[in-house]
Amino acid sequence: MDEVLHVDLIPKLKRLSSPRDADMSKQCRYHRNFGHATKECQTLKDKIEELVQASHLRKFVQTTNKSLY
After folding, report:
1. What are the structural domain ranges in the chain?
2. 18-38 mean pLDDT
3. Which pTM value belongs to this model?
4. Least enclosed by CB within 10 Å: which of 37, 47, 58, 64?
5. Residue 49, by phi and psi: left (phi above 0), alpha (psi -120 to 50) or beta?
6. CA distance linking residue 47 with residue 68, whole number of Å
């Protein structure tokens, strides 16, 4: 996720305010606020999956061609 945030494949979001009851020990670098960790960010995971499906992140995708027999 860190690598994707450093390249311009995902547009940078406008800083969002943290919810009132946000867990201040968790910070999301994608949303640039507190409440959940970047690793836990479902929105970012979905964006990364879109990039994988569009073949923009080939160097990060591992494939295997093992036969089942």
Report:
1. 2-57
2. 93
3. 0.70
4. 64
5. alpha
6. 32
